[in-house]
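Example 3.2
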Amino acid sequence: MKTSDYVTKASELPTPPDAAQKPHTTDIHGLQLQDEYFWMRLSDAQKEAKEPDAQTAEVVAYLEAENGYKEEVMAPTKALQTKLYDEIVGRIKKDDESVPVLDKGYWYYSRYEEGKEYPYNCRKKGTMDAEEEVMLDQPALAEGHSYFAVGGRSVSPDNNLLVYGVDTVSRRQYTLYVKDLRTGELFEDRIPETTGGATWANDNKTLFYTKKDPMTLRSFQIYKHVLGTDVSEDVLVFEEKDETFSCGIGKTKSEKYLVIGTSTTVSTEWWYLDADTPNGEWKVIQKRERDLEYDISHYGDHFYIVTNRDAKNFKLVKTPVNATGYDNWEDVLPHRDDVLLEGIDIFNEYLVVQERQEGLNRIRIKRWDGSADVYIPFNDPAYTAYVGANPDFNTDRLRYSYASMTTPNSVLEYTFATGDIETLKQQEVLGGEFDPANYVSERMMVEARDGVNVPVSIVYRKGLERNGQNPFLLYAYGSYGYSMDASFSVARLSMLDRGFVYAIAHIRGGSEMGRGWYEDGKLFNKLNTFHDFIDCGQAMVDAGFTSPDHMYAMGGSAGGLLMGAVMNMAPGLFNGVIAAVPFVDVINTMLDESIPLTTFEFDEWGNPKDKAYFDYIMQYSPYDNVEAKDYPHTLITTGYWDSQVQYWEPAKWIAKLRDVKTDDNLLIMDCNMETGHGGASGRFERIKEVALEYAFMFMLEGIEE
């Protein structure tokens, strides 16, 4: 194929779908908001009905028309997509196996077999030389389902029973099953509409689980179930009545206590119960207060608590198990202005601390007796490192994971007493062509328009010239305090090897630079998120990496909102944009509390029923700011069954963009009619989605193969 075979002007392609406009008005704050595409919204009942009504048929026809148009536009890249898929899959070890974890005398691991989309969850007793027990045969369970996902898996304290959750719709609503690992038989107990996991009491017969509201999908009730009894007899032990909170159930690492946690963005509350007395009375650690966040661990006679009380970047305190209110909290690790305390893991002789400083992960090892206080060394300029599964209190080693933009995902063990580090496994990159020495990773600090320095992690093929002509993909998220660390991707090599530069902009709204970084990118500070991304993009141009003709942007979910906002604010900076499952209809969604996730997002975006928040959100809401002007080439992806960002948001957005934009650029949408927020569930099936995204950018760059 020749480059000239690519058609990148909409006017030279078949006519795109033309969505019907149907007037709909929302009256708010003395204004009338017009939404001609409101009709695209379907209820779950409509989507699930055996016989579609007229509206459902019209919506599905429109979505399928958009999919058909996408196929026509991308038809010249079919061979390239296949090549990319084969190329990426060819780097992946087909019969891969996780590093085993020892827990109560069993080694637990997952393994894949060649040709299988899903893993086998297995264990061996005592030694890895023992006979294998397949606890879950996911390939068999997934047969006949277009989507399949296992939620939490939990083995009973006596090692005999397994509880697990299954979702075959992609709505993140799981049905719980209990399996006897001795016989392989399933109990008759079936528990629907759960979060996907359950927690065992120490009696090996009592389970606690979390129910979801079937409409809003809010996790709001904790139930107690006794094996062998009818689910209708399950006892409600906790109900979260505040619609801005959601709850869950777990167990301390010590297995001494069952714990219920309930939280909203800025507040948490924990309850505990002796795991030996599942019928006992739950006690609160510390009653909820606005802006008080805390997380709990148990060790000996104390709860250890990570909290933001008088500590913006969090600190570690402890309190006796019989006096848990914050009046009894005693500092263990005081607050530090320059270090974000992200979490802890407790061992018999050591405390392990996960921190973040200057945007980078750190793992700190402290001996309880004060004789050791060290940091695990990391050498890459940008990387990700986190503590892994360490269920044993008495172990002499710490399991952790590490990766960088040039270092494949690695599982390592740190010996507490000596500081020795052993690599247990590093992700294999097959094909014989990958060498970390062929790639360069660097970290830049970009000065944003208000003088704040924003970190950017960058990777590219060695020998790249900064001639302003390199294709460049800039990725970011920037919401909920989630930090986007520099990690490795086998798929990304297909970009780098074709001359692309890839970068992550660690913009405000995440927590990369501390809690203040998050607070400066939410609510009335949200515009900082978008300005940071634009300023980072411009800095990449100014540094000579690329130019607006070769610059691409990508983000998903709340990162899709970011894409929509920057397209409105700085459309000329990017040649193309990929918006994955984008949250773009902010006003309409946040006004409707029946939509899943809405109520406990008020602390992130604000409630538009408050005029001050309404006015602020209206400054950036992508859907509400679409106007007649030139936009970049755009690929939008969504899932019909998405419970987090409903499909109608991107569907309405593309319809409105196509109606008013003045350019001749490509505008296409890929709506997966069988999946939800996370896309395809199989390990290889989802790579087809990656191949489409890459092919979209390669087509715009004239890259043939």
